[in-house]
Each structure stands twice: as C-alpha cells, then as structure tokens.
Amino acid sequence: MSYSHSLYQRDVAVIKRYGDKYKLIWMATKRQKGIECKDDGLVKGDKGDFKLENNISRAKSRIFELAMCNDWQYFITMTLDKGKYNRYDLSRFQADLTQFIRDQRKKWGCELRYLFVPEQHKLRDGELTPAWHIHGLLQGVSPEMLADFPPGVPWGLKGYLNYPDYMRKFGWCSLAPIGNRHAVSAYITKYVSKHIGQGIDVGSRLFYASVGLKGAEKIKEGILACIPPEWDYENDYVKIVWISESEVDNYII
C-alpha cells in the first residue's frame, strides 16, 4: 500500500492523557493534522463486514476517550414503556431524548451532559425486531432531579436511583453513582458490537454525545525512543500501552 507523503507521517509515537491515565500509541502511518475524518461512529452506506468493523472500532475508541476524559456522575440505563412510546424507532427515541435533555437543562437550571450508547433487547416472542434501550453516562445532574424508587418496583431496580421526569415520559430507568472511571469507561464500550451495528440504520450513529465534551489531551508526539516491555495491544499498524505519568519522558524523542 502506498501513501502520499503530503497526507501521512510514518512511524509516529504519541502520548495522550485520558483524565489521570496516560496512553502511548505507536502508529505505522498517521494522517497529517486537518485531514482527519471525524465521523464519530456514523454508520456509512456500505455495511460490509470490514467497513462495519472499522466503524465499530472507531466508535469504541471515541466512547472510551469521552468516558475517561469527563467527570461523569452516574451510569444510566433507559428503557421504553411500550404503553408510552414506540420501542422500535431508535431515530425518534434519539431525537426526543435529545430534546428532553434540553428541556431538563431549562427546568432544573443545570448543564446536563451525556454520552449515550443504544442497545437492542433480546428478541421476544411475537416480535419481528428487537426493542431498543440506551445505556449512558451523565454529568451536571442536580440532586433534586433524582429520587428513590417507590415500593413495588421491579426487583432489578432495587439499590438504584430513579429519574422521575424520564420515567413519566419514556419508561423505567436506573442510575448508579460512578466509582471507578476507568472500569466504567471500558464497560460502556462493550455495548458497541457488530450485532448492534447491523441493527442501526445507515446514516445513524453508534453513540450520541453532548457537544463540548473534553477529549484526550496530546502530551507529546515524535519518534519512539525505546520499546515498552510489553504492549497492551498491537497489530501491523498500531501499538498501544498504558503508562504512568513518571514514564512520559522516557518513550518519545
């Protein structure tokens, strides 16, 4: 495969900071700044296996970055009540949920931000297509927006917090405070899979995120000075390892 020297750099090492974590990335080739394609998980017109897997890989990377680099308060799971809403229309759900977030900001006077990943339920008897629900992360939540669940809730919701405004409009939801940011960042990427990608219409997104979220900060870029004892992930085109802050100056010239 040949590359235009004006578009690509070769043999590039980069260190980025994800919150309080540092990632060393070696790339065989890297697009020059200003030419990157920022589709943020958009499902393209061709759903061939290679293109879909590439979309999913890019989406997972971006979701992990946004999850690690922002101060999320809660992990939320949002379902749809079939008596209140069409559980199979993801596009409408996404649009109405976005408007709901805008309305909540005005109602509660807060800067509510989100990172949402849709997932399909398992196919149930009598269904031709699986229903949708959404997992996500929230920040900017005011305490008065949440409440304990009333008596008689489904057993699986015990120990979680309720979001009454959401429940009245859409259906059951549950919120859990976030403890380990790295763990929850890795966990939420697991909802993006080839199966889910095939269920989403062309032109739709594999995830949704508020505008203005913080991304990873590039700390250094240059030539790899030494090889780490072991890579966390590697193939012919990219190698990745998590390092400590004290190791930042060791790896790049």
Compact description:
This protein is of the alpha+beta class. 24% of the residues lie in helices and 27% in strands. Helix 1 runs antiparallel to helix 4 (181-189).
What is the topology?
Layout: E1 8-18, E2 21-31, H1 49-68, E3 74-78, H2 90-108, E4 113-120, E5 132-139, E6 147-148, E7 161-162, H3 164-169, E8 173-177, H4 181-189, H5 194-199, E9 208-209, E10 217-222, E11 233-234, E12 238-243
Helix pairs in contact: 1-4
Provide structural commentary:
Helices cover 24% and strands 27% of the residues. The protein is α+β, with helices and mostly antiparallel strands and 253 residues long. A hairpin with a 3-residue loop joins strand 11 (233-234) and strand 12 (238-243). The longest helix is centred in the first third of the chain and has 20 residues, at 49-68. It is elongated, with a radius of gyration of 20 Å. Residues 1-5 and 34-38 have low confidence and may be disordered.
